[in-house]
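seq/struct pair 1
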Amino acid sequence: MNTNTHNERIAKMTFASVYPHYVAKVEKKGRTKQELHEVITWLTGFDDEQIADLADRKVTFETFFASASLNANAPLITGMICGYRIEEIEDPLTRNVRYLDKLVDELAKGRKMEKILRA
């Protein structure tokens, strides 16, 4: 399903290259950057300052998730994203990036925050 090339490409992508797209996506749908940060914080444990620092330093997703404290409820994030069923993604890093993508999607789609945060 996921090729090594695909996983390597995701690992080398920078958080900074995707972050502005996340912001634009949620703001276009009437959500806020603060709500986006709440979702990122829930998944990774990073606070606003750390999120900004990681973006400024242009860290790869590999470094980003190596520094994160993944939420214990992250495996509750299921469903399809980018044509892949999240719970079937074997590569841990690729799965973590897809968790983040899925949360951003749910935020942009207007889902209630307590549902997004698997409360």
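seq/struct pair 2
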Amino acid sequence: MADGEEQALEERLKSALWFSIGKIVDEETLKLGVNATPQFIGALTEMVWAQIENVTIDLKSFAKHAGRSTINTDDVMLLSRRNEGLEAVLRSYVDKQNAGKSNHKKR
């Protein structure tokens, strides 16, 4: 992908993220009866984007260390190991998915 195309894609992704975060912030501020400025939404979007970039780097590193070019569930679980709540939610989801697959194969 050319640099111009890559930059255009990144801008589209950031715009979609800003839109989604804006909707969530609007819903929550209505519930709480407070206001959020566009600057707040912009700053929150930048913070989330930076976190996504960091997660991406970590996931790529985990897959590469395992000798793979594709990120899989094990990489995500490894990333979540320091956040017990997140790890529990993800583990529950993965277990349900795996149970569904094994039940489907038995039919």
